[in-house]
Design a protein that fits this description.
The structure holds two protein chains of two kinds. Chain A has a single domain, classed as TIM Barrel, CATH 3.20.20. Chain A is globular and about 85 Å long. By secondary structure, chain A is an alpha/beta fold. In chain A, about 35% of the residues lie in helices and about 15% in strands. A five-stranded mixed beta sheet of chain B has the order 2-1-5-3-4, with no helix packed on it. The chains are: A alpha/beta, B mainly beta. Chains A and B meet through strand 4 and helix 2 of A and strand 3 and strand 5 of B.
């Protein structure tokens, strides 16, 4: 399988995995291992002074996985920039999954605040991976300010609805000069395969694995789907047509013609 | 004196440094980030800052997220 390159760094896996919503840190660790992912996302929150939990980082081997902190919870550019800087201060490499989601119901990303924050963070030396709606024009603007990828959503976060934004994601892929990572809403391995067949460079999955009856098996299934989808894309898919085209010869039938 | 840590009032003693506070709270400085009156600090400065009455401190760490 061909490698994924983001900001000059290469990865064998084209599946990124989120670490939220797992029943335990042990289950999270087993799931990311089963997925084959090399990039895992984390969030930054206030330390709970009264009830300190088992530290997530005890379960993630930093030599094996690139920790990609997100700016989840940010409602505007200022909050996102603050979170990105804090993540760097907490010892992360300067990679950030930039998300600005002021709307608590659909968690749709704010395009204007995302672009503002991206511009500032790129100037500060961050490798910025912005979470966006599947808007090809916004994707272009973000690429112009120097983001490392664009991460269009398939459907709102945690909805498991799949690649509802397919046509716009296709345009983003067609025009992109950076890797396109389909993020959010992919609820089944087939959704991930669909995004990869379309030409996405990678996908990010969290909820679908975390809420599965068997998260590690689901992670493995997503890993295979991503590889299958990528291979299908590289192999070159046949064109769709309306009329049937026989696969078997149209001569030598056992009848008089 | 009173300081605010993660939106909760807490008492601190005179001469106590930020590094002392983090120790007292049982936190590992390598796993957290600290904001002191809105300034993000690097780890090596934690021991150089003496707490003052009214200080506002935010301490964050990594949690699961997508």
């Amino acid at each position: 399988m061909d490698q994924l390159t983001i900001a000059g760094r290469t990865f064998r896996s084209r599946l990124m995995v989120g670490t939220g919503k797992f029943a335990s840190n042990q289950q999270m660790a087993a799931t990311i291992a089963a997925s084959g992912a090399e990039i895992v996302t984390v969030a930054l929150r206030r330390v709970n002074v009264d009830d300190q939990q088992d530290d997530l980082l005890n379960h993630i081997d930093r030599n094996k996985y690139l920790l990609l902190p997100n700016t989840s919870g940010a409602r505007d550019a200022e909050e996102a920039i603050r979170l990105a800087r804090l993540a760097r201060a907490a010892g992360c490499e300067p990679w950030v999954k930039l998300e600005v989601t002021p709307d608590p119901y659909y968690l749709l990303p704010d395009p204007i605040e995302t672009l503002k924050a991206a511009e500032v963070l790129v100037k500060e030396g961050f490798i910025v991976l912005p979470y966006i709606n599947a808007d090809p024009v916004l994707a272009k603007h973000l690429q112009e300010v120097g983001v490392a990828t664009v991460m269009p959503l398939g459907a709102p976060i945690g909805t498991n609805k799949g690649l509802k934004t397919r046509d716009n994601v296709a345009i983003i892929i067609e025009q992109a000069i950076v890797p396109v990572v389909v993020d959010a809403g992919l609820g089944a391995p087939s959704h991930a395969a669909e995004a990869m067949e379309l030409g996405a460079d990678a996908v990010l999955v969290n909820t679908a694995m975390a809420v599965a009856g068997n998260p590690t098996m689901m992670a493995e299934a997503f890993g295979k789907a991503v590889e299958a989808g990528r291979m299908g894309y590289l192999a070159g898919l046949g064109k769709q047509r309306n009329q049937a085209e026989a696969s078997s010869p149209l001569t030598g039938f056992l009848r008089e013609e | 004196m009173n300081i605010t840590v993660n939106n909760q009032i807490r008492t601190a003693s005179a001469g106590q440094t930020l590094a002392d506070l983090i120790n007292e709270m049982g936190l590992d400085a390598a796993r957290i980030a600290v904001e002191y009156n809105r300034d993000i600090l690097t780890r090596d400065t934690l021991a150089t800052i003496s707490l003052q009455d009214g200080d506002v401190i935010e301490i964050v760490n990594f949690v699961g997220g997508g």
